[in-house]
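thread: overnight batch results

M.L. [08:02]
morning all. the overnight job finished for the chain we discussed friday. pasting input first so we're all looking at the same thing
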Amino acid sequence: MSIMESINIGSNALKTHGMRLDIHAKNIANVDTPNYVRRIPVINATEDISFHGVMNAMKEDVFGTGTLPYLQGGVVFNGCVEDPTVGERIYSPGHPDADANGYIRASNVNAMVDMADAIMAQRAYEANLALINISRSMAAKAVEIGR
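M.L. [08:03]
and the structure it wrote out:
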């Protein structure tokens, strides 16, 4: 893997975890908004780098037996799904969003869960930023050696 490829992987991860942070921030901001449904970001690896995936890739390469295939890592943002848990029903007959019986649905956002998820996303963001900085310093050292 080249230095530029590692920087590209890091920059894609920065975008992904930045979107993840935005979604959790919107969830936390709407914790008291009636009828708001919590959104959960879906993030997947760009390639199957599990043991099973590596073995399948090696099985396909008949002539390269015993060598590990070239796998490029990284993550990709695949959108959001709505949290299926149902918010609490609150009796508020004067509310504009109330149903025929006078009930509204409270938000199903749990602020503690979204704060914990946001902290995990922030740490992943920081780790990928460190990856880019390390790759950049490696490139700078390589240029210095070449002089």
